């Protein structure tokens, strides 16, 4: 793991002004039947401040690619460069249940080297950013699913990364909570000017959030097509323009699934 993280840090020098630069990346995993190719020749740039969604059917390699960008694994071929070490937010909140919301955020600040006497104030500021004022002392079991994901987002932001990687962070939430958090994420992205690479299999979620939607084919994952989303923010998931583009992308996604024989 240390070697992988060192490689990720070294790659920052060759990001060429991009939040991340992925060049001809392939990834294979060993299986009893031999190597299984999961990603095949992926090339993708994310510009500073850009919001990009990775879309595709289950098993197409979206999360694998995100893990490679995060430095949690190494590609079998190709290279990945990032502008500093990215922050990663998972589908599960992964909060420590024995810590309060504020202390979960402070832990990230501590690991970043923020002095102890500054952590409480910074954690409070981040809770305010995600609209959880007054939640500093609450335990994880006292928080709703949406509130837990807000704390997880605040903890990711505490890492002060320029690139935020999000792996289906709202997939387990109910539709109303997910809709609220879509709006909150858009607001935070606009306020912080972060670069975001967001994995989802929900087409409307991808269109609502992103400036650019990247569709991966079914395994092995390859970039099948990209769309620039020129719909002004804030968007609603029921907006006619969102629905229209979602229909177009869904048809392309279905075609990829049929082409590769996936259900």
From TrEMBL:
Gene3D superfamilies: P-loop containing nucleotide triphosphate hydrolases. Residues 20-245 form the ABC transporter domain. CDD domains: ABC_NrtD_SsuB_transporters. Keywords: ATP-binding, Nucleotide-binding, Transport. Transmembrane segments: none annotated. GO terms for molecular function: ATP binding; ATP hydrolysis activity. This is ABC transporter ATP-binding protein.
């Amino acid at each position: 793991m240390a070697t992988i993280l060192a490689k990720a840090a070294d790659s920052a020098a060759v990001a060429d002004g991009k939040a991340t630069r992925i060049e001809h990346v392939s990834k294979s995993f060993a299986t009893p039947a031999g190597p299984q190719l999961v990603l095949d020749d992926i090339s993708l740039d994310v510009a500073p401040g850009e919001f990009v969604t990775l879309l595709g059917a289950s098993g197409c390699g979206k999360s694998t690619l995100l893990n490679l960008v995060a430095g949690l694994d190494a590609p079998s071929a190709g290279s990945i460069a990032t502008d500093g070490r990215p922050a990663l937010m998972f589908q599960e909140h992964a909060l420590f249940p024995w810590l309060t919301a504020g202390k979960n955020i402070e832990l990230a600040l501590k690991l970043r080297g923020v002095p102890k006497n500054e952590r409480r104030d910074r954690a409070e500021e981040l809770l305010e950013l995600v609209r959880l004022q007054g939640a500093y002392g609450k335990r994880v079991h006292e928080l709703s699913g949406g509130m837990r994901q807000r704390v997880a987002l605040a903890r990711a932001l505490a890492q002060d990364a320029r690139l935020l990687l999000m792996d289906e962070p709202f997939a387990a939430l109910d539709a109303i909570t997910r809709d609220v958090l879509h709006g909150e994420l858009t607001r935070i992205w606009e306020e912080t000017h972060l670069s975001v690479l967001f994995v989802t299999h929900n087409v409307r979620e991808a269109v609502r959030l992103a400036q650019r939607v990247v569709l991966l084919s079914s395994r092995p994952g390859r970039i099948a097509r990209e769309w620039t989303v020129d719909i002004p923010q804030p968007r609603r998931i029921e907006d006619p323009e969102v629905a229209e583009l979602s229909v177009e992308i869904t048809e392309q996604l279905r075609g990829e699934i049929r082409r590769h024989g996936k259900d």
